[in-house]
Amino acid sequence: MSLSGKTAIITGSTSGIGLGIARALAGQGADIVVNSFSDSQEDHGIAEGIASEFGVKARYVQADMSKADQCRALVETAGACDILVNNAGIQHVAAIDEFPVEKWDAIIAINMSSAFHTTAVALPMMRKAGWGRVINVASAHGLTASPYKSAYVTAKHGIVGMTKVVALETAEEPITANAICPGYVHTPLVEAQIPDTMKKYDLSREDALRDVILQRQPSKQFATVEQIGGVASFLCSAAAEQITGTTISVDGGWTAL
């Protein structure tokens, strides 16, 4: 499979799942637009590293995914968008009656509304090019729920619903829209939480992973960013041309419970 000549925009892609997907698509020959809100030298260096390693064009474009105009400007600045991966997301945990309003607004904006804005600008580009893939990174929490994560669960359910709408609106075109629903993925952010979990529950690393962090993941193993990237690559392949409007769970059996 080759994605040579295709341009992929991946939101929230300087680390974790987003970076894993960016690297996977670059490995298939796609030119890459890396994004975050911080606009640091390190951010630009990540894009330069992808370009050097995979021999593709890659650049960093700053955009705050909580701002509608910046979401749209990200795609416009890229100038082309054959593959749009809506990945940016944040989290906050609190009971509904104690959930800070500003956190709710930020999570809904970044995790859900940003995908509406980027997709609205990307679809005309895909139609002009005669090919397109919209890949939304949802979550197991887009298919099920957990307490104290009201904004996150709401946003991820919304992303799954919007994926279906985009798929129906493009069903007779060479454009597909699908959602990847990861369970717990081993990212630098998750790795950083492990020592605190061990300390809080007075557990070994192995027990903290199995009994606390991966408690809801039947496989008791993390998914990897490379596996999520592989699923994204598959959705861009010819084999996936008739896969649209659906979810693909990468959750170790979580949603089978």
Please tally the β strands and state the result. 9
- What is the number of domains? 2
Question: What is the CATH class name of the largest domain?
Answer: Alpha Beta
| Amount of beta strand | 15-25%
Strand order of the largest sheet: 3-2-1-4-5-6-9
Order of helices and strands: EHEHEHEHEHEEHHEHE
Topology:
Layout lengths: L6 E4 L5 H12 L3 E6 L4 H14 L3 E5 L5 H11 L4 E4 L14 H29 L2 E6 L12 H20 L5 E8 L2 E2 L1 H14 L3 H9 L9 E2 H11 L11 E4 L7
Parallel strand pairs: 1-2, 1-4, 2-3, 4-5, 5-6, 6-9, 7-8
Can you give a write-up of this model?
With 257 residues, this protein is of the alpha/beta class. It is globular, with a radius of gyration of 18 Å. The model has no long low-confidence stretch (mean pLDDT 98). The chain contains eight helices and nine strands. Helix 1 crosses helix 8 and helix 6 crosses helix 7. It has two domains: 206 residues, Rossmann fold (3-Layer(aba) Sandwich), CATH 3.40.50; 36 residues. The strands form two sheets. A seven-stranded parallel sheet has the order 3-2-1-4-5-6-9, with helices on both faces.
Short description:
Belongs to the short-chain dehydrogenases/reductases (SDR) family. This protein has 257 residues and is α/β, with parallel strands linked by helices.
Keywords:
single chain, 257 residues, alpha/beta, Rossmann fold, 2 domains, seven-stranded parallel β-sheet, two-stranded parallel ribbon, 8 helices, globular
